[in-house]
Write a structure and sequence with these properties.
Layout (H helix, E strand, L loop, with lengths): L8 E2 L1 H20 L2 H25 L3 E5 L4 E3 L3 E9 L9 E9 L3 E3 L4 E6 L6 E9 L3 E13 L5 E8 L2 E6 L7 H18 L9 E4 L11 H7 L3 E4 L7 E6 L23 H19 L4 E5 L4 E2 L8 H10 L9 H8 L7 E6 L4 H10 L6 E5 L5 H9 L3 E4 L10
Parallel strand pairs: 3-11, 14-15, 14-17, 17-18, 18-19
Antiparallel strand pairs: 1-10, 2-4, 4-8, 5-7, 5-9, 6-8, 9-10, 9-11, 12-13, 15-16
Helix pairs in contact: 1-2, 5-6, 7-8, 8-9
Length: about 400
C-alpha cells in the first residue's frame, strides 16, 4: 500500500514551517541557544508527524466505481457511483478528504464532480454519485478518481488515484423520422423479405412433411404427389432479411450542401453535415434492427459484424461512435462489392450528404436483384438522381436537420 501511495508534498504552510524550523536550528547552533534549537526541532517533528498521519489515512484507502452501463447516447446522462473505504484499524485516524472525478470534454458535469467525504474506523463507506451529460459521440475516459489527503496540521498533502480511468463509449443519438420515412423502411424490408423467403424448387429448398398451420403456397405439389403425402418447402433463407448500413465517409459528399437552406451545414470542412449524417445512420439502424435479422455497419475501412445483441444494433452504434470524415475515403460503391455476397444477403441502406447522377448509377449497379436499396440523404436529391434510383428499385429518404426547414 505504501508503494502505491505518493510521498506527501508540503503545502505553503508546510514549506514555511520547514524553513522556520531549519532556520531556528541553524541560528541556535551558531548562537549556542538551546531554546531556538529545541523550537526548530519541534517544528520539524510536526512535519514528520504530519507525514505519518497523511500516510495512515491515504495508504489504506480503497475505491470502486459502479456504473449501470459503459455505453451512453448523446444527450443522455451518464451516472456512476464511487464508493470509498478507509482503514479498518480501530485506532486509525478519522479524516475528511477531497474526492474528485475527472471528466473529459465529451461530458458536461450535471452534479458536482468533487466532494468532501469522511473516512476512518467505525465510519461507513463514503458514497459519491456523479452525473454527467454526454455531449459528443466517441470514446471518452471517465476518471481516474483521485483523493486529496491533508495532515491535521495542514502542512502536507497527498494526491492519490484510488479508482483507475475507464472507457465510456458515447454513441450517436437519433433524429425523428417522418411517417413517410418509417413507411419506406418498413416497405423495403417487407419487399425484401418476400423475395428472400420465396422457395423455388427442391433444388434450392429443403423439403419436410406438411405441418398444420403451414402456408398452402409453400406446398411442393410435384414432390408431394411423388411421395404420397404433402411436403412443404423449407427455404434456408426464409427469415427476415439482413441489412447493411453503408456510411459515406468522403468529405466532398458533405461540402457545399446549399448555403440558403442549410447555412449551418455549409461549413468548409463539412464536419457539421457529416455529424448529422451519423445521426441519420443511427436512426436508420435503429429502425431496421427491429425489422431485420441482423444489421451490419460498413464504412471505408471497417465492417462491424454482429457480435452481440439481437440484430447487432449495439455493434453498429459503437461503430458509428468511432467513424470520422476523411478526404481520402473510398466511395461506398467501392466498398460494397467487398462485403455483399460474403456477409450480407439482404438490403442496403446508404447514408450520405448528397448524391450525384454518377453515384446513383453506380449504386444501382452495385446491387443485384435479390437486394433492396435505400438512399438516405441530408438534402433532397436532384429529380434526375431520384429517377435513376426509382427505376433501379431504390427508395429515397431525405432526413434534413430539423431546424433548417429544408424541403423534401
Amino acid at each position: 500500500m505504501l508503494r502505491r501511495t505518493p510521498f506527501p508534498r508540503p503545502t505553503a504552510r508546510g514549506w514555511t514551517v520547514i524553513a522556520v524550523g531549519i532556520g531556528l536550528i541553524g541560528g541556535g547552533l551558531v548562537a549556542t541557544t538551546s531554546v531556538a534549537v529545541s523550537a526548530g526541532l519541534l517544528l520539524l517533528v510536526l512535519v514528520v508527524l504530519g507525514v505519518a498521519m497523511a500516510f495512515l489515512v491515504a495508504a489504506p484507502l480503497r475505491g470502486s466505481r459502479t456504473a449501470p452501463r459503459a455505453t451512453v447516447q448523446v444527450g443522455e446522462v451518464y451516472r456512476e457511483r464511487i464508493t470509498l473505504r478507509g482503514t479498518s484499524v480501530p485506532i486509525g485516524p478519522r479524516s475528511t478528504l477531497l474526492v474528485r472525478e475527472q471528466l473529459e470534454d465529451a461530458f458536461a458535469s450535471v452534479s458536482d464532480a468533487e466532494v468532501y467525504v469522511e473516512v476512518g474506523p467505525s465510519v461507513p463507506p463514503a458514497v459519491f454519485d456523479v452525473e454527467a451529460l454526454a455531449m459528443h459521440r466517441g470514446r471518452s475516459l471517465v476518471g481516474p478518481v483521485t483523493i486529496r489527503v491533508e495532515d491535521p496540521f495542514g502542512l502536507l498533502r497527498i494526491d492519490r488515484p484510488v479508482v483507475p480511468a475507464e472507457e465510456v463509449v458515447v454513441v450517436p443519438a437519433s433524429t425523428a423520422l417522418s411517417a413517410m420515412d418509417t413507411g419506406a423502411l418498413a416497405g423495403a424490408v417487407s419487399a425484401d423479405e418476400g423475395r428472400v423467403g420465396q422457395g423455388g424448387s427442391a433444388d434450392d429448398s429443403e423439403l419436410r412433411p406438411y405441418r398444420p398451420g403451414d402456408p398452402i403456397r409453400r406446398v411442393h405439389w410435384a414432390q408431394s404427389a411423388r411421395r404420397g403425402e404433402l411436403h412443404v418447402r423449407q427455404t434456408a433463407q426464409a427469415q427476415p432479411p439482413e441489412a447493411v448500413i453503408a456510411l459515406d465517409l468522403r468529405r466532398s459528399s458533405y461540402q457545399d450542401l446549399g448555403r440558403d437552406d442549410l447555412a449551418e451545414l455549409s461549413d468548409l470542412g463539412g464536419d457539421a453535415a457529416f455529424e448529422h449524417a451519423v445521426v441519420v445512420a443511427a436512426s436508420v439502424a435503429r429502425a431496421l434492427a427491429a425489422r431485420t435479422s441482423r444489421v451490419v455497419l460498413v464504412t471505408d475501412d471497417t465492417v462491424t459484424r454482429h457480435a452481440g445483441d439481437a440484430g447487432g444494433l449495439t455493434d453498429v452504434l459503437v461503430g458509428l461512435a468511432d467513424v470520422r470524415v476523411r478526404s481520402d475515403a473510398r466511395a461506398v460503391t467501392d466498398v460494397l462489392p467487398d462485403v455483399r455476397g460474403r456477409d450480407v444477403h439482404g438490403m442496403t441502406a446508404v447514408v450520405t450528404g448528397h448524391c450525384t447522377m454518377e453515384q446513383a448509377t453506380a449504386l444501382v449497379a452495385s446491387t443485384n436483384g435479390s437486394s433492396r436499396g435505400i438512399l438516405a440523404t441530408i438534402v433532397p436529391p436532384d429529380p434526375v438522381v431520384r429517377g435513376i434510383l426509382d427505376r433501379g428499385g431504390w427508395r429515397t429518404l431525405v432526413v434534413p436537420v430539423a431546424r433548417t426547414g429544408a424541403n423534401r
